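Hi R.,

Here's the chain you asked about this morning:
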Amino acid sequence: RPPLLSISVFVPEKVKPKRQILRRFVFKGGKVSVQLIFKVATWLLSLAFLSGLVLAGRHFVTSSRPLPWLGKLHGFAVSGAISLLVFAWVNVGLDSAGSYGLLALLVAAVGGLALTLGFRFRQKPLPDGLVFAHMCVAFVGFLIIFLVSRPQLIH
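And here is the predicted structure, written out as tokens:
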């Protein structure tokens, strides 16, 4: 399937040499390397998973306020991974498992935004049910993306 968007549309003329770096790492033979995108997204999601475990541990075990820098790291890692996966979905297309993983991560991201904007910014305590639901849906999405990025583990 041909890509819906062309990368060259978004690259100004003065940035053309940097485009070669993007082509070298992401494009192989004129096609986007979906495996590379999935591997980088998996690493970012692993970082988000570990930071999320620390945040959940502080919430459920110590009932103390989460560390602001760790919450930001968690959010930035997830947003980077979701951006890569949406890029792959729009330009190349994903199989059904990858699409379901992306959908689960998007649902978890909405839950994370609800936790942050609805409760943290208003200085209200986070509801345990919403934290647990966010954690479960995010883990399912992470697991699907992890398995899609490493097909040798499935077969």
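One quick note: Residues 4-23 have pLDDT under 50 and may be disordered.

Cheers,
M.
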